[in-house]
Amino acid sequence: MTTITTAASAFRTTLMAVALLFAASLVSVSEGFSTTSNTNPAPSLDAILWDMDGVLAETERDAHRVAFNRVFAERSLETEWTIEGYGKLLEVGGGKERMTAHWNAVGWPTAFDGDNSDRQARVKELHLAKTDVFNGLIREGTVPLRPGVERLIDEAITSRKQLAVCSTSNEKAVQNLVETLLGPDRASKFSIFAGDCVSHKKPAPDIYNLAVDTLGLNKNRCLIVEDSGIGWGAAKAAGICCVVTKSVYTAHEDFTGADAIVTDLDGTDGASEPVTLETVEGLLQMRH
Description:
This protein is α/β, with parallel strands linked by helices.
């Protein structure tokens, strides 16, 4: 009887040991799967945030500048911005800010009497008039889309990516350009962040931060398309992947640090491949 009891006890001990070993192996396997599943995957694109001027279309030289000069002439302000001179003025973000900076440097027109608040009220009025002229030029088809813009937007829409324009230009001007050059169906897919929606304009990151917060985006899953040094500065400050498409006025600027620098999104100069969603996914993975 004692022998049987001892044997049974030994058998139970052996079973318990086997059970413990089996349980330990399950924990190990479970932890192995857990480790694999918790590895952060490379981010995937959720949204493209576009600048407008110089990115969607070459508007600065042939539309904005022309519109400013037309309004200046209509009001006899003895101001005309040359092609080269306007390129320098683009270092200041925002049309109202651009006029103010110019006249602060060269002297205000005699028509601008009064204190600074009166001057700023006149500047605001001029900018609204300029926006109306600009919108007319866009509706006339003065400026086309840049190469590759429509294609990449269509890819994004097909893949259900979010789209937004983040521009220092007047909101009416942005909305008009998007609807006119892209058509109402594409335009309906865009969110617009423009004009004075933020206090600090590019190169401050505020407008991109506003877009990310408003749309509920993850910065690691976004792409910004810019064309200028101040735009690239805003993207960099926001910590968002950025492709720079050099424009007429910005080809000479230093974009060191940008995730990709191209002449245009279709690579029409042969120096780069077209920028596609696959390209963008690769850029996001490189940053991961």
